[in-house]
Amino acid sequence: MTRATRVLVLNSGSSSVKYQLLDMRDDSRLATGLVERIGERSGRLTHTPAGGERRTREERVPDHGAALGAAARELAADGFGLDSPELAGVGHRVVHGGRSFTEPVVVDDAVEAEIERLVPLAPLHNPANLAGIRTARRLNPDVPQVAVFDTAFHATMPEYAARYAIDARTAEEHRIRRYGFHGTSHAYVSRRTAALLGRDPADVNVIVLHLGNGASASAVAGGRCVDTSMGLTPLEGLVMGTRSGDIDPAVVFHLSRVAGMPVADIDALLNKRSGLAGLCGDNDMREVLRRVDEGDEEATLAFDVYIHRLRKYIGAYFAVLGRVDAIAFTAGVGENAAPVRAAAVAGLSGLGPQIDERLNSARTQGPRLISPQYARVAVAVVPTDEELEIATRTFALIGT
Ligand code: ADP
Description:
Blueprint: E1 6-12, E2 17-23, E3 28-36, E4 43-49, E5 55-59, H1 64-77, E6 87-94, E7 105-106, H2 109-117, H3 126-139, E8 145-149, H4 159-162, H5 168-173, H6 183-196, E9 205-211, E10 215-221, E11 224-228, H7 250-257, H8 263-272, H9 275-280, H10 285-293, H11 297-321, E12 326-330, H12 331-336, H13 338-345, H14 357-361, E13 368-369, E14 378-381, H15 386-398
Parallel strand pairs: 1-6, 6-8, 9-12, 12-14
Antiparallel strand pairs: 1-2, 2-3, 3-4, 4-5, 7-8, 9-10, 10-11, 13-14
Bound molecules: adenosine-5'-diphosphate.
The site of adenosine-5'-diphosphate has 12 residues, from α10 and α12.
């Protein structure tokens, strides 16, 4: 009998589906793809088989069903039909697991219904994730589907880190607490950091800085998350590409009362027109850094606000963890922007972390240390791989 060793990972967004097919014998990618502009007049599918040419197709993709159908056709053309006995299962990224899901689960009708019940907590994301799950189940009723939640890794946060200091009954009634996001990345990166140090994750305390367009920090003690910067939603915490991160909640009342702004507009302001973009007009750190180099004042201020917030979280997590073994930078900015890493850690040698400028600016791929050997706290760059983590967790749950 053929051993099923392939896992398809699906990341379904509101207007796009990203997919990767992995072979879990060696964690290799067999194919990757993206279906964009779902529901628009013309959609686009980009598919790349491992070692092969990228194929692009422009066609209308009315819904998630059509998106997955198109992806399945491309995979089949490469000999990776989803009806193949080699497909062990499908792993779905699901943004919000609330308090119901603290581990990946095999999807059945009850799980589907619970993800639906969590929609009010993630109105933009969970419906899209659900559409992907429903379609995949319909197309392949015999293949196990696994949901892997962005919030799950943070479920180990102690109650005092997860609660807001607001009226307890109101919080309970409306499920208001700090859930945290990017958990798949924080889990993967904290483990990889321990491996880079040659140590067991259970013995290592790590501050993970996931700096992408969205950004979050986490404090991980012995492999368990004890605090993270995102909260009820991904708006809390660090300064991001277009999100404000931490803000006095009274700004919202002020904008409503004094500026007469409707709540939906304030929501859009804080999520889409704030952060780096709000401060200087550019959300892309590459552009911000280019402008900083040119002496642009707005961009320099935006950079400084970004770094100041980041340093405050690093300091806070030293206090939360007590002992820190490593700080790990990951995601688009964390992996690529040496000036951000240098500024975030500058002057912190009293706490332990130091950066070797030569190692920091080297264009090396893969996980690496950028601190001098004598630093008391290691500083690392660890590329995240959320798809691999989802595939690994999926396979662990259903692998044969
Ligand atoms: P997302 O949050 O969308 O998953 P990523 O982790 O892919 O984002 O990060 C995207 C961001 O990474 C971009 O908006 C850009 O600011 C930043 N980025 C990518 N490459 C570089 C680079 N070479 N230097 C600085 N920033 C970079």
